[in-house]
Specification:
By secondary structure, the protein is of the alpha/beta class. It folds into 2 domains: 178 residues, NAD(P)-binding Rossmann-like Domain (Rossmann fold), CATH 3.40.50; 129 residues, N-(1-d-carboxylethyl)-l-norvaline Dehydrogenase, domain 2 (Orthogonal Bundle). The model has no long low-confidence stretch (mean pLDDT 95).
Amino acid sequence: MKIIIAGAGAMGSRFGLMLHRADNEVILVDGWQEHIDAINKNGLKANFNGEEVVERIPIYNQNEVSTIDFSADLVILFTKAMQLDNMLQSISSLLHEETKVLCLLNGIGHEDIIKNYVPYNNILLGNTMWTSDMEGPGKVKLFGDGSIDLQNLGAGQENVANEVVEVLNQAGLNANYSSNILSSIYKKACVNGAVNGLCTLLGCNIADFGKTTYADAIVEQIVDEFIAIADAQEISLNKDEVLAQIKSSFNPETIGLHYPSMHQDLIVNNRLTEIDYINGVIVRKGKQYQISTPYCTFLTELIHTKEEILGAK
């Protein structure tokens, strides 16, 4: 399958590498020129569960990709949420009527942008529990196991979704078809909303946060706000399941030693974060549904304050 990885950061590099190794025709598209130059010169380097590997995968700057001859069967979106529209504009010449788009971005509501570029029936929403760390331009650290849940948005397009599931599974990405992806997306958003911003502000990995005296109480308050907003939209979430998933992430033998992507963006790379598309969405929807969201509000404001202090761009 001819696949575009749109957003070749830590997670995009993982998916690109694994799909490339499964004999798909993969290209990476990104806006970080130093990263692009490093991959073009030396290949994509990865510590892949302790094994040092190098894969030669074509990568292009999104501002120049319109000049290449490539017609995508599948686009997997891994941009930051605030970069989504610009990325889709950049790759629009590589899309056609049958191109499928799988959105694996953190956050909620991205289909409203994607439908401006491909037919609604071609959109797949998903979430992933895989992790990846960027160790520098052209180099990533891939460790542990993960999974993907995905679903078609268009009615009667289950066969399309299952074709994508099969391609992902051939690459070892542990994909599953979901009949209720919005519930899964909100569940993932709960995990991100309870962990990403706090680890970023506290300057710690997930396990270190989980070991603190106050972690459980803070997490439960944040999860309660997410569940209240989900309930208002008739999206079902099981609080005990969500809390169990968050607590499982504290385990240093699974992903506990991982620093969330928000920490990598702001603290390591001095970039603006996706907080407005995670906790900030809950704040906006809270105002819409007249539901109080004090923890998400304060966390969103603190992250934006930290962005200003650091001069993030």
